[in-house]
Amino acid sequence: MAFDMHEEPLELTTPAGKLSGTLALPGTRGPWPVVLLIAGAGPADRDGNSALLPGAPGHMRRLAQALVAKGIASLRYDKRGVGASVHPGLQEEDLRFRHLVDDAVALAGRLRADPRLGTLLLLGHSEGALVAKLAARDAPAQAVVSVAGAGMRACDLMREQLQGRLPELLEEAVQAALATLADEQTMDDPPDALCLLFRPTVQPYLISWFRYDPAEVLADLPLPALLVHGSADAQVPVRNAELLHAARRDARLLLVQEMDHLLAVEGNADAGPPQIAGAVAELVQQLERSTAA
User: Fold this and answer.
1) What is the per-residue pLDDT for 195?
2) 107 vs 207: CA distance, rounded Å
3) How would you class 144 by CB atoms within 10 Å of its CB: exposed for 0-12, middle for 13-18, buried for 19 or more?
4) How is residue 50 annotated by DSSP?
5) What 3-state DSSP class applies to 78?
6) Are the C-beta atoms of 22 and 29 separated by less than 8 Å?
């Protein structure tokens, strides 16, 4: 992929701490449209890498590169408490889903204040897709892009992901735990086999996440939306994209054939991001035409 790209650090101090990211700018003359890239679940850094994932997929960095090749700037960032996004005293039991939304809103405001940047889109991957939808309620964004986003509550998605993959007794315990958390109740002593997934310190975050129905949030969002999903996504199956599209029939649905959850197409990590960037570029053109009209 041949293109000219300039990257510069961006830091934003918030009441909770510091957010640190990388602003990728095209080599062409600005101002440029810009996309805030919001990573998925877990302790993800600005490139999409996480200690919980084997290897280093770097799918968010690849997506930033693909956007620059289309003349679109982007900001990708370390999540709160990860990498250089230092939040002194942050404890797992204090983290809530809304905190991630607040961070996205703050960073969107920073991008809007940069005179080099124009049309602003929020793009979230996986769990980040819900963050983007919620942040768009308060951020100065013109559109939202959901990539591999869930179309049902996270507790229901987790229930489907685990169904039939565990011993019967353990599966019953998982289903009971999910039901308890969905009812906004904590468990004092989860079974040892479930301690990693449902440890007491992460339960408040899960409860705060399980409250949101992504399809309902999208249906209530008065902004243009682009829905992107891979046909080979085993973690968030294609039915989730269909649920989102049913909630917003005016949204464009792009199904990328053979793309998995981390944006690789048949094992090629570089193949998915350009297809996503192409669809984002088309959306940007539509937005800019409507603004000029």
Assistant:
1) 86
2) 25
3) buried
4) B
5) coil
6) no
Q: Model-level pTM?
A: 0.95
Rounded to whole angstroms, what are the CA distances from 289 to 119, 248, 282, 283, 292?
A: 11, 22, 11, 10, 5
Could you report the per-residue pLDDT of 54-74, keeping only the tens digit for each? Answer: 666 799 999 999 999 999 999
Tokens, residue 224:
């243009």
5-152+212-292 belongs to CATH 3.40.50.1820: yes
Exposed/middle/buried for residue 205 (C-beta within 10 Å: 0-12, 13-18, 19+): middle
Q: How far is CA 62 from the centre of its chain?
A: 15
Tell me the three state secondary structure of residue 117.
strand
Q: How far is CA 225 from the centre of its chain?
A: 14
Parse the chain into domains and list their residue ranges: 5-152+212-292, 154-211
The model's confidence at residue 2, banded by pLDDT at 50, 70 and 90, is: very low
- Which of these, 18, 117, 69, lies nearest to 278 by C-alpha position? 69
Q: What is the pLDDT of residues 4-26, one digit of tens each?
A: 789 999 999 999 999 999 999 99
- Beta strand spans in 116-176 (E): 117-125, 143-147
- Token pair for residue 146? 């959901």
